[in-house]
Amino acid sequence: MAAETVSAVETAARAASVREEFPILAIEAHGRRLAYLDNAATTQKPREVIDAIAGYYTTSNANVHRGVHLLSERATAAFEGARDDVAAYFGAAHRHEIIFTRNATEGINLVAQSWGGRHLTAGDEVLISAMEHHSNIVPWQLACERTGAVLKVVPIDDRGALDMEAFGRLLSPRTKIVAMTQLSNALGTVTPMAEIIRAAHAAGAVVLVDGAQAAYHLPVNMQALGADFYVATGHKLYGPTGIGVLYGREALLDAMPPYQGGGDMIASVTFEKSTWNTLPYKFEAGTPHIEGAVGLGAATRFIRRVGFDWIAAHEADLLAYATAAIAAVPDVRLVGTAPVKASIVSFVMEGVHPHDIGTVVDRMGVAIRTGHHCAQPVMARFGVPATARASLAMYNTRDDIDQLVDALHEVRRVFA
Amino acid sequence: MSDQLQELYQEVILDHNRRPRNFRLIAGGVTQEGYNPLCGDRVLVSMNIEDGIVRDVAFEGQGCAIAKASASLMTEALKGLTVAEAQERFAQFQSMVTSAHDEPPADLGKLSVLAGVREFPTRVKCASLAWHAAKAVLDGAPAAPVSTE
Ligand SMILES: Cc1ncc(COP(=O)(O)O)c(C=O)c1O
Known about the structure:
The structure holds 2 protein chains of 2 kinds. By secondary structure, chain A is α/β, with parallel strands linked by helices. Chain A has helices at residues 2-19, 47-59, 70-90, 104-119, 138-147, 164-170, 193-202, 222-225, 250-254, 290-306, 308-327, 354-362, 376-382, 398-415, and strands at 28-29, 32-33, 35-36, 98-101, 125-129, 150-154, 175-181, 206-210, 229-233, 244-248, 266-269, 274-276, 332-334, 344-349, 366-367, 369-371, 387-391. The longest helix of chain A has 21 residues, at 70-90. The model of chain A has no long low-confidence stretch (mean pLDDT 96). Chain B is globular, with a radius of gyration of 14 Å. Chain B has helices spanning 3-8, 11-18, 65-78, 83-98, 124-138; strands spanning 30-36, 41-50, 53-62. The two termini of chain B are 28 Å apart. Chain B has a single domain (3-142), classed as Sufe protein. Chain: A (Alpha-Beta Complex). Chains A and B meet through helix 12 and helix 14 of A and helix 1 and helix 3 of B. Pyridoxal-5'-phosphate binds at residues 103-105, 133, 135-136, 181, 185, 210, 212-213, 233, 374 of chain A.
């Protein structure tokens, strides 16, 4: 007990100092201290990331892979250096297995169109879960429409945990790809991804992991996980918007046709026929989001410096604290109580619509998300039109949670 | 509570949220759905128009306090008006909830309690939802669900 208390105090002190690395967290919101608890939507950026982007524009800006001049060399080095950072962050076997995209959504669309177009045929099955973000539903619906494949959905139980028995039943020789989230943005459920991947591989299916939420809360290593495809999005990884990552195993990416055509992705072009560039450039048509990649590279270095040992312990402690504190507010009901969770507390309050909760707590300096969280099937599963959602990041502290809970009491007073 | 919040969630609004008036559908009336998919607000506005006069207005649905109170107040405000008067009231209401902060809001009687949403740009769509559904019926063009997002 004593040891636990000491470590809790140390963790809190560290969180307070981490918070100081994020300049925006010092601003006031409606005259109050800002408690930013909308991290699942997007995270704030540390000074290092902001400086890396500004530094790129003040010392290195040029187009990449083209010029022979000094700045073009610098820009190319910065851009490709960022790819090395990201490859190291995800434990990719090769740097060319990292494709820069606009966001997680584009990564999923790339795989659904390019891999799906080549490998899916009528009667094949695509297996997703009932807690996917719309980004991991709609691209597969489109792919199924084009190919005649069938979309199958693994149900979740009343706590929001994946029904693994149903998963086992739905997995069959017809299953060509399993596309699933590692951490649900609406419920906070962590799925047993290593087990899912083992079972899928045994059934002959490939696996795409939607790591948009997981990648900044859990240490993810492609070798340990065994994923075939993994998508993440820069703006949740403490990096900039407009840049995302698709990891794909070399053999799979090599065998896939290009997603978009244009500059950078070709080896040669004649009017009769063009040939494709090697990986990763085959999938990166046009001038890329260079400063986005630079910012993301800096963000992954920042996260590794802070370290997942501490991040995971701190966020787990804070999640337990937040869950208990929010659940203790009268008339509040949690939505999503799976046994293995990370970073997210979704809830509803009897008699008060989530939007009204959001507006009242906002005026008290607390930023949370209210709505369906781009997961309408999850809302339907739990019979609610929307929820309020507090989501954590490494810089949150118990003060943020206390401020939210105070604000929730105010909501009750207003709507009593 | 901040002044702006107090202005937004006035007692009248809270009361209409708790006990919405004319919360029903009109048998034989014309019904129009209003739906804001992003926030999940959904209303059904039901109207009975005879001889160019709004004889009855009612609504059902689920939504935030602002959407519900606005719909409830609207049913009271439109009942008995001619179609032209009701359309005019819609225009006045729209201009009240979207007018600039520094202008005094138009005096719309009881509806003026909703002027506070001007200070909350993201909530204007909630206040307007039922009104747009009603407008579609008044214009004689009920159709696919209307949205204010
Ligand atoms: C689980 C999950 N998947 C995918 C996405 C899509 O991310 P992006 O909009 O950056 O492509 C999100 C973002 O909200 C998410 O939470």
